[in-house]
Sequence to fold (148 residues):
Amino acid sequence: MTDQPADSAQPATREPSADTLAELHRLNDVCRAEPGNIDAQIALWQAVARLKMWVCINRGTAEAPRPYMISGERGPILCIFSNGEQATETAHSSGLVPATEPVPLFAVPLPEALDWAMSFGEYGVVGVTIDYPRIGAWSPLPNLAQLK
Fold:
């Protein structure tokens, strides 16, 4: 599987600003309030694509990272996070990692993360979700090509 990230630098070194995170949440609120508003969904995913990196919970090893995924109706969905804090919170609250243990994370810089995520399509992954479950908006993998 092509799950080797383009860069496994520590996510904390390039965390998004509080304003950037607030904008993601604002855009998500618009999407939830207006589920049929395609323009709002596009704006949200454009903001996601402007992040410096996507952070992933590592379910593999340091040498062979494997991102955390969830099961969707149509197939597996890649979980990406806007920051290390959100990824850590999800890993602990979902029971992936005990609350007393550090969470193994890796980061993939953008714009390379778009191609990296789309490469999972050949293995049956159908989409990507951001900050699951806090935001939880998802996009079909082919739509990521429009964000390049």
In short: The beta strands are 53-57, 69-71, 76-80, 105-109, 127-130, 138-140.
